[in-house]
């Protein structure tokens, strides 16, 4: 076997408590466990039923994001949370964390936010770590060269009780992205184009490593957008080799190593990138310079076309026909003709400061089209504060958009921020599944720039019309 | 968890590809803090109309679906969200096995931990199952075979450890807890955050 190793193989082998054998999967140590109110209650109950305690409370961090309100009066003003069961779930997480000694960044904490936004913000997401959370978009943290993946609630219980997981070793998948993204084409467009190319199960069983000139040129926030949607291609994890961009992002963050420990950590992190010549089980190539702004037209993230393109025709494909019927769109028609009723800017995919800046840059001095409802939800309270300090909230408000407290919000509509039946929403989130944003809601996924441009026109619009 | 040995049942067929976990159990039902009772909301948006009445055409509402324990689905069932509520809802409804040509990773893992057997079969067997809804099948976990009368048995992949746990009705946590010494050794040898903070 070759001694040349990939980034994934280095992180994997450093965390093997026991390697996999013919009889048992590998026992993997988990460096950081993030948890939230929706996928943890049954795990804490399981611990209670078996009389177990949390092995390493210092390695679990809890917050609340999925079912939390985004209306200020419900977060800070004492107004009741609209959905009773959501309020109960929030209270349950508070009780569970108190009982088991886990740090909770609770509803009114200044550091609260979407779990995949706050890990990096705090500097607790670091290269070379194994990171898990009961949420499939845990893949986001792979942008730092961590091995990060979503788990189910039973596994949340395993991590709480043992700080370990049983895992079958996945295969490796190199996505080589050559060239540079043209102006007005974003990391979101890159990952949507990739999913369109390899399909929504193209990464099943693999850990993706995003590589190449275009990836190296991305900021950390853009890299997070790319890794975030790895799961939409079926890959549980997506990774990017740590480099100077990574180190600069982490330097000085509250929970990043400091002083001599920082220097030692960086020295370790520099050894993580895949060895030149390391072999991947599968490789695909993409030319970034040929990409355009992308938008989805169907009911999975792989059903995607350039904003200037047309919906394809696939006669005799019942799945495609069902998607078209659900979306109320016509094969062969330009996607630019699709009307927009709702615009959502936010989520763990595109709810960071640079995303809000990009949308605001398009919106500045312009108005949301008549009849269009636009919701801007920062990914964290920190993002919200930073955006307000720059006046981004004023740009959105002046345009006619709503500006909210942080959370997952309309990405999955658990908290009541939903899209109405039959309405078309252009959304910077990650899933356009049937009913994802509300019963009967029709979702078109796009970048913050494309969402903002579409808000102004009231139909799917190429953001390059507004960028000069 | 009840041990699984052999599942004998007629099939329910849902031929759509990429049935995601948002379809299996929509997000608005995830504000629960228990596992039980989710079967009533299984496939809620396909199963009920806006007034909450069962849609008579939907397969799970049809009389022939009653008592079926094997769901045959199109390729890549379980993609999307990691919500374990998806297998909880399927099990609560009465399913014991999901059969497809591809099953998404996290859903597969979650299913194995809840006594819901993920059965990945070859294209030809899958095509036959899709074309013969309601067929009587026998899924033998010990032999890792799906059997249909008059056809050769179809093998399916299953890890030795998961098979052991399912056959014996034990969960995986006991094994992890038994590794305490190895975990402690790993923690004390690790260079960084794994040491006690």
3D structure, described in words:
The complex is a heterodimer of chains A (468) and B (197). Chain A has helices at 7-14, 41-50, 72-75, 84-100, 115-122, 153-162, 187-198, 213-216, 220-228, 244-250, 259-269, 318-327, 347-350, 353-363, 381-389, 392-399, 448-457; strands at residues 16-18, 26-29, 32-35, 60-63, 103-105, 130-133, 147-150, 164-167, 171-178, 206-211, 237-239, 282-287, 294-296, 304-306, 342-345, 373-376, 402-403, 424-427, 442-445. Chain A is an alpha/beta fold and 468 residues long. Chain A has three domains: 7-167, Aconitase, domain 3 (2-Layer Sandwich); 171-241 and 266-289, Aconitase, Domain 2 (3-Layer(aba) Sandwich), CATH 3.40.1060.10; 293-465, Aconitase, domain 3, CATH 3.30.499.10. Chain A has a five-stranded parallel sheet with strand order 5-4-3-6-7. In chain A, strand 13 (294-296) and strand 14 (304-306) form a beta hairpin. The longest helix of chain B has 10 residues, at 180-189. Chain B is α/β, with parallel strands linked by helices and 197 residues long. Chain B has a seven-stranded mixed sheet with strand order 4-3-2-1-5-6-7. Chain B has helices spanning 21-24, 44-47, 85-93, 105-112, 123-131, 160-168, 173-177, 180-189; strands at 6-14, 70-73, 97-100, 117-120, 136-140, 145-147, 154-155. In chain B, helix 4 links the parallel strand 3 and strand 4. The radius of gyration of chain B is 19 Å and the shape is globular. Helix content of chain B is 29%, strand content 16%. Chains A and B meet through helix 2, helix 4, helix 6, strand 8 and helix 12 of A and helix 4, helix 6, helix 7 and helix 8 of B.
């Amino acid at each position: 076997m070759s001694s040349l190793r990939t980034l994934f193989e280095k992180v994997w082998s450093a965390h093997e408590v026991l390697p996999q054998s013919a009889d048992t999967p590998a026992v993997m140590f988990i460096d950081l466990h993030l948890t939230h109110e929706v996928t943890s209650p049954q795990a804490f109950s399981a611990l209670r039923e078996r009389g177990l305690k949390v092995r390493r409370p210092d390695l679990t961090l809890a917050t609340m994001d999925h079912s939390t309100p985004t209306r200020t009066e419900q977060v800070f003003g004492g107004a009741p949370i609209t959905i009773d069961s959501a309020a109960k779930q929030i209270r349950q997480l508070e009780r569970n964390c108190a009982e088991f000694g886990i740090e909770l960044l609770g509803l009114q904490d200044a550091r609260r936010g979407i779990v995949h936004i706050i890990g990096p913000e705090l500097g607790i997401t670091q290269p070379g770590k194994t990171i898990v959370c009961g949420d499939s978009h845990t893949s986001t943290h792979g942008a730092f060269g961590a091995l990060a993946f979503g788990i189910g609630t039973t596994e949340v219980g395993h991590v709480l009780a043992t700080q370990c997981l049983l895992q079958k070793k996945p295969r490796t998948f190199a996505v080589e992205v050559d060239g540079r993204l043209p102006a007005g084409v974003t990391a979101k467009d890159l990952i949507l184009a990739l999913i369109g190319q390899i399909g929504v199960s193209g990464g099943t069983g693999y850990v993706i490593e995003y590589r190449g000139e275009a990836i190296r040129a991305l900021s950390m926030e853009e890299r997070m957008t790319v890794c975030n949607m790895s799961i939409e291609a079926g890959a549980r994890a997506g990774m990017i080799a740590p480099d100077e961009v990574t180190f600069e992002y982490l330097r000085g963050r509250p929970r990043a190593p400091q002083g001599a420990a920082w220097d030692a950590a960086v020295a370790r992190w520099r050894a993580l990138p895949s060895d030149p010549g390391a072999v991947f089980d599968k490789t695909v190539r993409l030319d970034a310079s040929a990409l355009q702004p992308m938008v989805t037209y169907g009911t999975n993230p792989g059903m995607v076309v350039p904003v200037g393109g047309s919906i394809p025709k696939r006669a005799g494909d019942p799945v495609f026909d069902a998607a078209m019927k659900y979306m109320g769109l016509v094969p062969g028609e330009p996607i630019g003709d699709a009307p927009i009723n709702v615009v959502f800017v936010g989520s763990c995919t595109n709810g960071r400061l640079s995303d809000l800046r990009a949308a605001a840059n398009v919106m500045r001095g312009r108005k949301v089209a008549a009849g269009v409802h636009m919701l801007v939800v920062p990914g964290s309270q920190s993002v919200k504060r930073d955006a307000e300090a720059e006046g981004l909230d004023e740009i959105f408000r002046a345009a006619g958009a709503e500006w909210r407290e942080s959370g997952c919000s309309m990405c999955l509509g658990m908290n009541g921020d939903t899209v109405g039946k039959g309405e078309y929403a252009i959304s910077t989130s990650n899933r356009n599944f049937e009913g994802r944003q509300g019963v009967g809601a029709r979702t078109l996924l796009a970048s913050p720039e494309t969402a903002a441009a579409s808000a102004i026109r009231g139909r799917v619009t190429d953001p390059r019309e507004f960028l000069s | 968890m009840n041990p699984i040995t052999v599942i004998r049942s007629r099939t329910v067929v849902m031929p759509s590809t990429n049935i995601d976990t948002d379809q299996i159990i929509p997000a608005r039902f995830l504000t629960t803090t228990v596992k039980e009772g989710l079967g009533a909301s299984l496939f809620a948006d396909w199963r009920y109309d806006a007034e909450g009445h069962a849609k008579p055409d939907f397969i799970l509402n049809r009389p022939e679906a009653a008592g079926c324990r094997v769901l045959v689905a199109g390729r890549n069932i379980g993609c999307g969200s990691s919500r374990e509520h998806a297998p909880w809802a399927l099990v609560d409804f009465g399913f014991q096995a999901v059969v497809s040509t591809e099953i998404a990773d996290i859903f597969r893992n979650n299913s194995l931990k809840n006594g819901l057997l993920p059965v990945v079969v070859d294209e030809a067997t899958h095509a036959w199952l899709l074309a013969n809804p309601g067929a009587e099948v026998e899924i033998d976990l010990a032999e890792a075979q799906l059997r249909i009368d008059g056809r050769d048995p179809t093998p399916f992949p299953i890890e030795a450890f998961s098979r052991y746990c399912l056959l014996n009705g034990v969960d995986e946590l006991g094994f992890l807890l038994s590794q305490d010494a190895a975990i402690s050794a790993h923690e004390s040898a690790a260079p960084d955050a794994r040491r006690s903070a």
